[in-house]
Specification:
Elements: E1 17-21, H1 31-41, E2 46-49, H2 64-76, E3 80-85, H3 101-106, E4 110-113, H4 118-128, E5 132-134, H5 144-154, E6 161-163, E7 170-173, E8 176-185, H6 186-191, E9 204-209, H7 215-227, E10 236-240, H8 258-266, E11 273-277, E12 288-290, E13 293-297, E14 302-305
Parallel strand pairs: 1-2, 1-3, 3-4, 4-5, 8-9, 9-10, 10-11
Antiparallel strand pairs: 5-12, 6-14, 7-11, 8-13, 13-14
Helix pairs in contact: 7-8
């Protein structure tokens, strides 16, 4: 059940203790965890890892029960002030029915990650009303641009403006709109349609990113969003940079280009939209708060939060 009242986690402070999880794929080398601990220490945080992080169960970091137990225990532990995902891949969706959402709702705290973590972030937001954060995984490098947005969102109690610094955007339809930010990885988001963990997108601003998906697969995902009635509910769409989402024209003649797929699905909606926001699998990215209200300006490619934590 979705909570009617939005829950906001407590901001982080220097010397807070935080947890590191791997809710899906296992890491390939222990140094990935070491780097994550160092990265969080640079923010003044003391990081401890979940018991399953260094385990192996096939391609996963421990069994479903072990990975879910890490998350449940970290939300229940008052000493742990935030939870950071170590890496992406696959597997977070396998543990959604093993999480204690009532306990999580009663112990709201920051949880952040991206890619496969989208499943966790959307499920927790939908089931508890807790604001979650689509941001860099702890096992990846955080350049200054990325670190600044993490700092602004998780430590500083003020509204934030998101604007690209490294590459241009492609405006699909100009205009402004406001609504709650909801989104994440497109494939993971679509995989949740029809489940008890899929959030309400009525009057939302959808943000999406993707990697290694051909245009026809992106077309299929947008078609699923359309047929599920999601697209017609939206106030606006912010598309991050899709990485390696093209086809070789010499081997697949006649294929739609990625931008053509976007236009076919988005332009008929007559809502503000643009492509190329710094929400992607690249190193320099925004930290997007799922559930907070924002205003977008598609012509300028700007997202402005209308509320803070």
């Amino acid at each position: 059940m979705r909570q009617s009242v939005l829950k906001k986690p407590t901001l982080l402070r220097q010397n807070d203790t935080v947890g590191i999880i791997s809710s899906g794929f296992r890491i390939l080398q222990d140094t990935d965890l070491d780097f994550a601990i160092e990265r969080l220490a640079a923010l003044g945080l003391n990081a401890i890892s979940g018991a399953a992080v260094l385990k192996q169960y096939g391609y996963l970091a421990g069994t479903d029960e072990e990975r879910a137990q890490d998350i449940n225990q970290m939300f229940a532990d008052p000493k742990i002030k935030a939870i950071f995902q170590l890496r992406g891949g696959f597997g977070s969706g396998r543990i959604l029915d093993l999480l204690d959402y009532e306990m999580i709702a009663n112990n709201p705290k920051i949880i952040m990650g991206m890619s496969d973590t989208t499943a966790l972030l959307l499920a927790i937001y939908h089931k508890t009303g807790l604001v979650t954060f689509h941001g860099p995984n702890a096992g990846r490098e955080w350049p200054e641009f990325t670190r600044q947005y993490v700092q602004a969102l998780l430590f500083e109690n003020k509204p934030v403006v998101f604007k690209n610094s490294e590459h241009n955007i492609t405006v699909m339809r100009e205009g402004t709109a406001s609504g709650r930010l909801i989104g994440g990885n497109l494939a993971v988001l679509c995989s949740m349609i029809g489940t008890p963990y899929f959030p309400d997108f009525q009057d939302a601003i959808l943000f999406i990113e993707e990697i290694n998906e051909a245009p026809y697969k992106v077309d299929r995902m947008f078609t699923q969003l359309k047929l599920a009635g999601v697209l017609k509910q939206l106030k606006g769409i912010v598309i991050g940079k899709f990485i390696n989402c093209t086809l070789n024209p010499s081997t697949t003649p006649g294929s739609f280009e990625l931008m053509q797929v976007f236009e076919q699905h988005i332009l008929p909606l007559n809502i503000p939209a643009w492509y190329g926001a710094m929400i992607s699998h690249e190193k320099s990215i925004f930290t997007m708060p799922i559930g907070l209200k924002a205003e977008i300006d598609a012509k300028e490619g700007v997202i402005k939060l209308l509320e803070s934590l």
